[in-house]
Amino acid sequence: MSNPSILILPGDGIGPEVMAEVRKIIDWFGAKRDLAFDVSEDLVGGAAYDKHGVPLADETMAKAQEVDAVLLGAVGGPKYDVLDFSVKPERGLLRLRKEMDLFANLRPAQCFDALADFSSLKKDVVAGLDIMIVRELTSGVYFGEPRGIFNEGNERVGINTQRYTESEIERVARAAFELAMRRNKKLCSMEKANVMESGILWREVVTRVGQDYPEVELSHMYADNGAMQLVRAPKQFDVIVTDNLFGDILSDCAAMLTGSLGMLPSASLGAPMENGRPKAMYEPVHGSAPDIAGQGKANPIACILSFAMALRYSFDQGDEATRLETAIEKVLADGVRTADLMGPEGGVPVSTSEMGDKIVAAL
Amino acid sequence: MSNPSILILPGDGIGPEVMAEVRKIIDWFGAKRDLAFDVSEDLVGGAAYDKHGVPLADETMAKAQEVDAVLLGAVGGPKYDVLDFSVKPERGLLRLRKEMDLFANLRPAQCFDALADFSSLKKDVVAGLDIMIVRELTSGVYFGEPRGIFNEGNERVGINTQRYTESEIERVARAAFELAMRRNKKLCSMEKANVMESGILWREVVTRVGQDYPEVELSHMYADNGAMQLVRAPKQFDVIVTDNLFGDILSDCAAMLTGSLGMLPSASLGAPMENGRPKAMYEPVHGSAPDIAGQGKANPIACILSFAMALRYSFDQGDEATRLETAIEKVLADGVRTADLMGPEGGVPVSTSEMGDKIVAAL
Ligand SMILES: CC(C)[C@H](C(=O)O)[C@@H](O)C(=O)O
Ligand SMILES: CC(C)[C@H](C(=O)O)[C@@H](O)C(=O)O
User: Fold this and answer.
1) Which backbone phi and psi does A314 adopt, to 5 degrees?
2) Which top EC class applies here (chains A, B) (predicted)?
3) Which of residues 157-196 of A touch B (CB under 8 A)?
C-alpha cells in the first residue's frame, strides 16, 4: 500500500517558516514511528498570485482534491491589499474550502497551563479551558448569491446573501454532535433566530438532528449572547456549533481568550473519500503576520498542532497525535518560548526553527 | 412653550421595575432642576402582545413618532417563546427602530472604577475603559429582502439578505465621526471586506466620509479581528463603527468586558425632527431577565444611565447628564450594591427601589 499523501501549501508571510518546522515533525514520524507520508508542496495565496496571477492555480486545486490531507500555512499580506477582490489571497483559501466541500471547521480553544498568564482574562476564568467550536465553512453569507455591488437609483448598494439549506445545516450539526459524543456530551448551537429566518431553520434542524443523540445535552443561544458568555464564563461550553459568519467571529473571540494565538490549530473536514478518510485541510488560526515574516520570530506550534489534528482526524492516529501534543506541552513546561510566548516571568528564548528542534527532541 | 415629551415603554420582565426608578429621577429633575417633562407610558413586547395581540400597537407606534424621546425597558420572556416570529416581543422593538429610522445605535462600554473587579478580564486590561460602539440599526441583514424559509427541491432553505446602500453607510459613518470629534478623535470601522462585497462598499464609503474629518484618525479592521482585539486590548479603541449584525455581536462582547451588564445604557438616534431634536430611543443593554423579574433584585442603573444619555443627546443637557452620572458613581463608590454588583469585597446590599432612592439622594 502506498503512503498516505499530504499536500503542503505554506502560503505567505510566516507560512513557509512555520511549515518548515512541521516538515521536521513529519520526517520524525516517518523515521521513528513508521508513519511515512508522501509529501508534496505547492503555492497558495499571494505566492500563487505572484507566479500564476491567481491565488490558487487549477492544478493545485486538482492536487488538493487527490491527497489525503492538505496542510496550509497562512495567506495574505499588505502587498496584495490593492488586488481586485477576485484574486486576493483569501480567495485561494475560500476556493479550497468550497471546492473540497470542507463543511465542518473544527476550532479548538484550549488554554495551556504553562501559558494561562497570557490571557487578558483572569486566570481562574480560563485555566483549563478546552472548548471546540464547529463552524460551518462552505455556505452562508460567504458563498450565498446574489452578491456584489450594484447600482440602484443614483447610488450603489452592497449585497450579500445568507443562505442555508436543511441538508447543509444537518451535516455540520451531525459533525458537532459526533464530536460532543467523544467529549463532554454538551453542545450549544448559536444563531440569531430572534432576528433571522435562516437562524430559525438552523435551530429547527439542529434540534431535529439532536434526537439522534439523546445523550448529548443540547442548548441554543443567540450569537450576541454567545459572544458575551464566551467572555464571561467560557468554561460553561464544551462544543459550540454555529454558521460560517458567526463562527468566524465567535471562534476568533474564543481563540483570543487563551491569549496565545500562536498556539491554536484548526481542521476543516468534508465528506469521506473512497478510502474512508474525510477530505481535510489543516491550518493554524493565526494569519500570515507579515510584520514578523522571515525573521525567525514566528511560533510554529499552531501549525504543528494542526498536523497533530491531521494525525487524529485524517490518519486515525489519535495516540500519535497525543504524543505530539504531549511533547509540545513538555517543551512549554520547560520554559521554551518563541517571542510571542515570552511573558514577564521569562523563559528560554528560541527562534522558530529552534522551537521545532526542541519539539522533535521532546518527541 | 410646552415641556419636552417622553414616552416610557417599560416592556417585560424587569423592565417595569427599573423604569419605576427612572421615573423617580425624572421627577427629581422636574422638581429640583426646573427640567419638567411630559411623560406618558404605554406597552411594548410581550406586555403589548398580551393586550393587543401584537408586540407594538399602531397607536403606540404613532405616539413614539411624536414624542421627543422614547425610553424603553426590555422585551421578551419564556412565555412568548412559542409565539410566531411575526409577533414575538422583539418585533415590537425592531418596528420602533425601523419606523423611527433610528440608524445610529450608540453603545458605550465603560468600566466603572468601583466595579473594575467585576470583569472576567484582568483589571489593568479594563480599568478606565471607555469606548463607544456606533452600530447601524435600521438596515443590513436585520431588514434586507428577500428573507424567509422557502422550499427548494425537496428541502427548505433559510434566507436573509445583507444589504447596505451608500447613503445608509454614509449617515451612520457621519454620526460616528461626529462622536469621535467630541471624544479622542479615533475611529475604527469594522466589516468583512475580505469576504463580503457589502463590506467593500462599507469600507469605501466610510473612507470617503473620513475626508470630511481630517482630524479623526480612521482605521479599518476585519470584524473577526475586531472581536479578538476587543478581548485582547480593548483600550486601543475610542469609537467603533460597524453594521447592524456585527454591531449586535461586537457591542455585546464589548459590554461584557466591563463585567457589569446592569450598568450599560444605549441610545438609538435618527434624523433631526422639526424641533431640531433627533428622533431617539434610549434603552439599557441588558435584557428582560425574567428569572429575577418582580423580586426587587434588578439593577436600575443601566436604565437610569439611558435617561442620562437622553438628557445629553435629546435635550442638550450635557451638564445635567454629567450630574446624574456623577451621582451614580458616588453611590457606587459608597459601596451601595444591587445583587448583581455584589462582589467578594461586600457592600451595602439594596433593592431596585432602594438603589433608585440612593441615587436621588446623591443628586
Ligand atoms: C482569511 C479569511 C477569509 C478567513 C475567514 O473569514 O474565514 C479567516 O478569517 C478565517 O477565519 O479563516
Ligand atoms: C432583542 C434583539 C432583537 C436585539 C438585536 O438583535 O438587535 C438585541 O440583541 C439588541 O442588541 O438590542
Assistant:
1) -100, -35
2) oxidoreductase
3) 157-167, 192, 194-196
Q: What is the CA radius of gyration of chain A?
A: 20
- Whether A252 has its CB under 8 Å from any CB of chain B: the answer is yes
Chain A interface includes B31 (CB < 8 A): no
**Per-residue confidence (pLDDT) for residue B350, from 0 to 100:** 97
Alpha-carbon span A42 to A21, nearest angstrom: 16
- Going by pLDDT thresholds of 50, 70 and 90, the confidence category of residue B169 is very high
Question: Which chain B residues are closer than 8 Å to A233 by Cβ?
Answer: 120
B36 pLDDT tier (thresholds 50, 70, 90): very high
**pLDDT confidence of residue B175:** 98
Residue with cell 423592565: B15
Backbone angles phi, psi at B343, to 5 degrees: -105, -175
- How many whole angstroms separate alpha carbon A195 and alpha carbon B81? 13
At which residue does the C-alpha cell 425610553 appear? Answer: B71
Interval A307-328 mean pLDDT = 97
Summary mean pLDDT of chain A: 96
C-alpha neighbours within 13 Å on the C-beta side of residue B342:
14
A227/B149 touch (CB, cutoff 8 Å), yes or no: no
**Residue with CA nearest ligand 2 atom 1:** B90
Q: What is the DSSP letter of B121?
A: B
A25-37 average pLDDT score: 96
Would you state the pLDDT for residue B1?
66
Q: At what angle do helices A244-257 and B244-257 cross, to 10 degrees?
A: 20
* pTM beyond 0.85, yes or no: yes
- Look at residues B227, B234, B229, B246 and name the one whose alpha carbon lies nearest to residue B130: B234
The fold adopted by the segment(s) B1-106+264-363 is: Isopropylmalate Dehydrogenase (3.40.718)
CATH fold of A1-108+261-363, please? Answer: Isopropylmalate Dehydrogenase (3.40.718)
Instruction: Report the SS3 class of residue A159.
Output: strand
What is the pLDDT, as a whole number, of residue B266?
A: 98
Q: Contact B142/B162 with Cβ under 8 angstroms? A: no
